[in-house]
UniProtKB/TrEMBL annotation:
Membrane disposition: Peripheral membrane protein
Name this protein carries in UniProt: Lipopolysaccharide heptosyltransferase 1
Keywords for the protein's UniProt record, in alphabetical order: Cell inner membrane, Cell membrane, Glycosyltransferase, Lipopolysaccharide biosynthesis, Membrane, Transferase
GO molecular function terms attached to this record: ADP-heptose-lipopolysaccharide heptosyltransferase activity
Xref: Pfam families: Glyco_transf_9 (PF01075)
Any GO BP annotation: lipopolysaccharide core region biosynthetic process
């Protein structure tokens, strides 16, 4: 059976889809997927053995210059690619109007969520088969339910991403190491620097190496402040996603905040802690078989605000992270590592 899967973005959403692909891979004999995904994330689907072809789309880039002849040529090439084969099923796992348009372009029976299950109900007009999946559940579970109902199998109890970590070589570092994913988009998602420093010291005292990743100058500068003067802690050079994946695949433990890379770490099924303060982990939080989410218990959390609304004085900011201490994070991380 050949299925065209439409799930274009974001990075976290792409990772959220892998458990559903793994379910189908286990439950449906001889299934294979072709996957339509944004060009910036096109290497991720290739990590799963059931995905035999990736069809990159560049809508994020194209929409900025639709009149450009080069862009129009790329769009025509994408149209030819998506219509090259006739599929047994074309499954829109994104559920947006833009993904519904891509779904309509393809050849084969179209399926997706029904109007009541969609954030953009008009997308349902693109599907011949409309599937009810209740809202209010984590995105991973909803996607797994969509696949199970679209492909007619019983949903497995076990959550797995199906990534073969042996595709990467172990990074050139001696001994066991922990990875800190300190970078994210909102100031209110940032765990305090002083806590990161204390956690690095605790990790080194535990006999582990500690490495920090970064994606921009601000994150690099923060990482350098965190490791400053701590023997056994280091800032890695900036690297592409594939190299980042190798470091996460072979880490003994990972600590991260609400970010795309934390979803990647969870997909590696490594022992990890994800720290949430201002954002809600209920529907789209980091989820993995060996991942523990530590959430703020402050009354105003999750505020879902890019700026702290409490304006409370104190050395630890934002205040929602005060009770999520380095010692607490280390203790919980050791539990996850022991169970991984």
């Amino acid at each position: 059976m050949k299925v065209l899967l439409v799930k274009t973005s974001s990075l976290g959403d792409v990772f959220h889809t892998l458990p559903a692909v793994q379910d189908a891979f286990r439950q449906v004999p001889d299934i294979e997927f072709h996957w339509v995904v944004e060009e910036g994330f096109s290497e991720v689907p290739e990590w799963h053995p059931a995905v035999t072809r990736v069809i990159p789309v560049a809508w994020r880039r194209w929409r900025k210059s639709l009149k450009d002849p080069a862009v129009r040529a790329e769009m025509k090439a994408f149209y030819r690619s998506i219509r090259e084969e006739k599929y047994d099923l074309v499954l829109d796992a994104q559920g947006l109007i833009k993904s519904a348009v891509f779904t309509r372009l393809a050849r084969g029976t179209k399926a997706g969520l029904d109007r009541a299950s969609l954030r953009e109900p008009l997308a349902a007009l693109a599907y011949k088969r409309r599937i009810r999946v209740p809202k209010g559940q984590h995105a991973i579970l909803r996607t797994r339910q969509l696949f199970a109902r679209a492909l007619n199998y019983r949903l497995p109890e076990q959550l797995a991403y199906g990534i073969d970590k042996s595709r990467w070589e172990r990074p050139d570092i001696e001994g066991e190491y922990w990875v800190f994913l300190h970078g994210t988009t909102w100031v209110t998602k940032l765990w305090p620097e002083t806590y990161w420093r204390s956690l690095a010291e605790l990790g080194v005292a535990q006999g582990k190496k500690v490495v920090l990743l970064w994606g921009n100058d601000e994150e690099r500068e923060r990482a350098e402040r965190i490791v400053d003067g701590i023997d056994g802690a280091q800032v890695l050079p900036r690297m592409p996603l594939n190299e980042v994946s190798a470091w996460l695949a072979y880490a003994e433990g990972v600590v991260g905040v609400d970010s795309g890379l934390s979803h990647l770490a969870a997909a590696m099924e490594t022992g990890m802690i994800a720290i949430f303060g201002s954002t809600d982990a209920t529907l789209t939080g980091v989820l993995g078989p060996h991942c523990e989410i530590i959430k703020s218990e402050l009354e105003c959390a999750p505020c879902r605000s890019k700026q702290c609304l409490l304006n409370e004085p104190g050395d630890i900011q934002p205040p929602c992270y005060r009770e999520i201490t380095p010692q607490r994070v280390k203790d919980q991380l050791l539990i996850q590592i022991s169970e991984a």
